[in-house]
Each structure stands twice: as structure tokens, then as C-alpha cells.
UniProtKB/TrEMBL annotation:
UniProt-listed GO biological process terms: isoprenoid catabolic process
InterPro entries according to UniProt: ClpP/crotonase-like_dom_sf (IPR029045), Enoyl-CoA_hydra/iso (IPR001753), Enoyl-CoA_hydra_C (IPR014748), Enoyl-CoA_Hydratase/Isomerase (IPR051683)
Cited PANTHER family: ENOYL-COA HYDRATASE, POLYKETIDE BIOSYNTHESIS ENOYL-COA HYDRATASE PKSH-RELATED
Organism of this sequence: Neoroseomonas eburnea
Family statement: Belongs to the enoyl-CoA hydratase/isomerase family.
One example GO MF annotation: catalytic activity
Descriptive protein name: Enoyl-CoA hydratase/isomerase family protein
Listed Pfam families: ECH_1
């Protein structure tokens, strides 16, 4: 299958069929979340909102590191910029970080984070916002924000949803560092992968599974799952009914029903 690639300031993209690999390419800074990385990621996920040709997005860091969190050098420079109000600048930078995590969480595609090296701060947040997280056993996870005088403000909702409030409090309030094995035990990561071969095998397995699912159905499923913890029972019943009706009456939904009744693979699944 043909692979289409492109490289930007902070990201390298590789498209192969329904799968898009997104590589953070700031290994000299352990893939810290710079202004450029944030901007390019938000633009990418904005473009993916209406793109059903992509069903799987894989996030990974170059140089054996996933993401070390916010770029501290950029943060320090912005706080000492004589031409800007430091509080206004800090608020806007943090808000844009929140927009990025929201975009990843709400993407209509299946988003997989592959954590190698470390996922710190914002990297921890990305690992929690992703639908599926893979990790190496020796990878390190932490929310070090409190230890450097700030709060894990924008990542907190995703950490709480992934781990529950009790474990989120333990990790955030002590800036504790855990390895991949503990991350998997806590449910932060879904799969432990001992080496590169195991990572590639697991990604291939996930890709095969996602290929069986309709792109519109994936988007609808994520809408329902994201709403489940936010709406009361009555509102959820109505919202879920609307999403279901949207799905089942489309060409994809009709094809899904027919393929089931005719005992064949649906058109979107490709050849066996």
C-alpha cells in the first residue's frame, strides 16, 4: 500500500490507507509541547473532523520519547516578554493546550498513543485523551506540575476520566512518577509492549480491528461515549437515540445492516 508522507516544523505525517501516523519531531527537546507543536496538532485534528477516510490516528514521539510536557524554555521566555502581560500570555497558552486535548479526545477517529521514554505533563494528558494507549514497561509517566509551582490545569479532566479521582489525586498531588507496568495496572495504558516488534504487532492488530468498523459508526460511538458521563439519564436517552438514527439511516448504516443479513463483509472493511 502506498504511503504518503509530509513533514512540518514539529510534526511528521505518514498516511497509509485509513491510518495516519503522527510523529512528534522535537527529539532534542524530548518532544516538548511547543507553540508550533500545539498549533500544528490543532490544525491537523481540525482537518480530521470531517475526514472519514482516516479511521485510525497513531501518535508517537521521535527519538524514543513520547512527550515531556510543556516547553519550559518557551514558557520562561513568555513570562519575561516586556511587550506582553505575563498572566494574559500564560492563560492563553494554557487555554490552547486545553483546546488541543479536547480536539484529540473528540476526534471522530480512533486515536492511539504509543508511549516510549516518557509521558510527562501534557504528554500524560495526551496519553489519557487518546482512545487507546500503548506503553513500553520502562516508560515513565508523571504529572510534575505541582513540583514546579503550577497546576496540571488542562490535563486534569482527562486524567480523572481515565484513572478516577482517587488515583488522579495521588499522582497529581505528589508529582509521583510511575513506570509503564504501573500505568497499565492502573488502566492508564491498555497494552504493555516489550519492544518495537511488539508495538508494531499491537498496532497492526488494532488497525485490523478498526478496519472492521464503519467510519461513521466510529464517530457516532465516540460522541455517545463522550456524552455518557456528562448528560443525565433522560438527556442521554434522547441524545443516544439521535446519534443512532443518524448512523442507521446513512448509506453506511444501511450497508451494515444488509451485509449482516447477507452474511458478507461490509464495503468499508475491504477484502478479507
Amino acid at each position: 500500500m502506498e504511503i504518503t508522507t509530509s513533514q512540518h516544523e514539529a510534526l511528521a505525517l505518514a498516511r497509509r490507507g485509513m491510518r495516519l501516523d503522527v510523529l512528534f519531531i522535537r527529539p532534542e527537546r524530548r518532544n516538548a509541547m511547543s507553540v508550533a507543536l500545539n498549533r500544528e496538532m490543532r490544525a491537523l485534528f481540525a482537518a480530521l473532523v470531517d475526514d472519514r477516510s482516516v479511521r485510525l490516528v497513531v501518535l508517537r514521539g521521535a527519538g524514543g520519547w513520547f512527550c515531556s510536557g510543556g516547553d519550559m524554555r518557551e514558557r520562561d521566555q513568555s513570562l519575561h516578554d516586556p511587550n506582553a502581560d505575563p498572566r494574559v500570555a500564560a492563560r492563553e497558552r494554557n487555554r490552547l493546550g486545553g483546546e488541543l486535548f479536547r480536539a484529540v479526545n473528540h476526534a471522530p477517529q480512533v486515536v492511539v498513543a504509543v508511549v516510549e521514554g516518557a509521558a510527562m505533563g501534557g504528554g500524560f494528558g495526551l496519553a489519557c485523551a487518546a482512545d487507546i494507549t500503548l506503553t513500553r514497561p520502562d516508560a515513565q509517566f508523571a504529572m510534575p506540575e505541582a513540583s514546579i509551582g503550577v497546576a496540571p490545569a488542562q490535563i486534569a479532566p482527562y486524567v480523572v476520566r481515565r484513572l478516577g479521582l482517587s488515583q488522579a489525586r495521588r499522582l497529581a498531588l505528589t508529582a509521583a512518577r510511575i513506570d509503564g507496568r504501573e500505568a497499565a495496572a492502573l488502566g492508564l495504558a491498555h497494552h504493555l509492549c516489550e519492544d518495537d516488534a511488539a508495538i508494531e504487532a499491537r498496532l497492526a492488530e488494532i488497525e485490523r480491528a478498526v478496519r472492521r468498523c464503519g467510519p461513521g459508526a466510529l464517530a457516532g460511538t465516540k460522541r455517545v461515549l463522550n456524552a455518557a458521563s456528562l448528560l443525565d439519564d433522560a438527556a442521554m436517552i434522547e441524545f443516544a437515540a439521535e446519534v443512532f438514527a443518524d448512523c442507521v439511516t446513512t448509506e453506511e448504516g444501511i450497508e451494515g445492516t444488509r451485509s449482516f443479513l447477507e452474511k458478507r463483509r461490509p464495503a468499508w472493511a475491504g477484502e478479507a
